[in-house]
3-hydroxyacyl-CoA dehydrogenase
Amino acid sequence: MTWTPPAIGSRPVVVLGAGVLGRRIACTFVAAGYNVHIRDPFPSARDAAIQYIDENKQEYAKFSSGRPDADITDPFGSYAAFEDIQSAVQDAWLVVEAVPEKLELKISTFGELDRYAPPDCIFGSNSSAFKSSLMLDQVSAARRKLVCNIHYTMPPTIRTVELMTDGETEPAVFSFLSEVLRNCGMLPATARKESTGFIFNRLWAAVKREIMMILAEGISDAPQIDALWEHMFQARVLPCKLMDQIGLDTVAFIEDNYIQERGLDTKLTVDFLRDNYISQGKLGQKAGDKGGLYPPSSTLPSSPSSATSVSSDSVAPEITQDLYILDVGLGGNLKSIPEVATNGKVLLRSAQTGKITPIVTGLPAPDGIDVSPALGRIFWTNMGANVNAPDGSLLSADLDGSNIKTLIASGTGLITTPKQLVYVHDTTTGSDKLYFCDREGMSVHRINTDGSNHEVLVQRSPENGTQRDLTQWCVGIAVDVPGRRIYWTQKGASKANQGRIFRAGIDIPAGETPDNRSDIELVLSDLPEPIDLELVRSDSELEDGITLYWTDRGEHPRGSSLNCARIQDRSLTGRVEEEARKEVRIIARHFREPIGLKLDLGSNSAFVTDLGGSLYRVDLESGEKRVVFEDDGCYTGIASLRPGV
């Protein structure tokens, strides 16, 4: 007889266990529009799970496509916590158990579920150690066709979910669950037969096993193993650090299952781990000052308990400033193409919590952003719904995204596709100004922070007579107030090595106009595709000038990079380009079309965003880049603000 999937409607998904992973599993379903019940016997765990979903469901929704029949006015599912199983599961269509890894407990739990859950309800075990076939002792024969493993890793950071049969599972259950999981933004994979460790955990177990043997034989240590791994695979998740995060006692317990099943030797693996670490309380991150494979003085990477932070750096400085990040709206979180004109967002990453929250939504392709601590305002550009029409706009808001004001309205015809924007307090004139480039408008602009006194400072003319002359498209902007100059990038055609950087006086020379000013100087040419720009001037460098930093979204190997160059401060001559090119240095490369750039000179680093959905922190000296977070967004501008400033 053909199996019929359970009717979902308002029926809940039930998650048994409100711990670190259980609450994340619940949040994936809530964010996709499914109603959820969480069952845990401990009140503190239930309260913590509800709080976690309250604080993180917006973040999870960024990578969720949502259930097809979700209410567009309220895309989130409802959620509630329960103390007893019977009340939680009486109308469930799916139950995922995430209770402690004790086989006896899982067997009795599945027995209770079989008694209280509806006949069409699917049971899934999140166990990483036990096959679901081992949990069937108290499950009826009819139900066994609806039991399987549903193994999550650690959403939202790692969104893989592995499905596996109990040996009797109805095959159609896997295609049904896979579709539901994809709606939740997960990456489902189905093991074709029973396998201890599923698919990935078997690979991971082999890695852990070899690491234990390398350590036991005295060949190397954890930092050196991780350093090699990181360099070889350009990885941000490092094996020894991850073992410390998981807990060395858990690592040993999981390995015991492989030992028992395969008859493996224990001397150089779990025996070594227990004798040298576990027996001394050196369990890893949860052991506090006792440490683990890494000594307690080492700073471990951010725990997966953080909703978005994915740093793999053991020594990177703490991020001490709030970060404002623009999602242009073109990423994987775009649920339908017609919504592209309203999918842009201003996001705030809190320095205190590391959480990312949308503070302004519904924007038409935002691109450049900056912040004024003195004014308590953020300012940003929107490219508009049609990049070929003059429908760009410039807005501002309070630091929390409230009190939005329009400085240049869309449809006024004043700007076409405004790009990078910088706020400048001009100490010479005492004025507060915003400078920005207009890409298709082929121009550089300045305006007061209240929207008055809008000026065009530079107007480029298309050499081919059309707006589509990409060599004249102005994108990035930086202002040298002491030197009284502006610098800007002109990107050129995509991947064409036509990019250039220019500079001119901060004011138009007397008697001249934006399109005929005589003080424009070429600084660099033949760049892959330069985008956003920053500069640094030191009081001790008045003779040697400034350092320019810029992102480049062009072709590899020179493009998709972060770059810098030393530039003369004095008036440039025909030799400037040759002299500047000698100083050009690629700081870091292999981004996914980098756009946004914000220097953090206090830590000698830079924040870089890319269209691939990542925020990086880059060491300006070594060029080492670290992922702060990544998801299905598509990121452009970035600005920073130190709390309390």
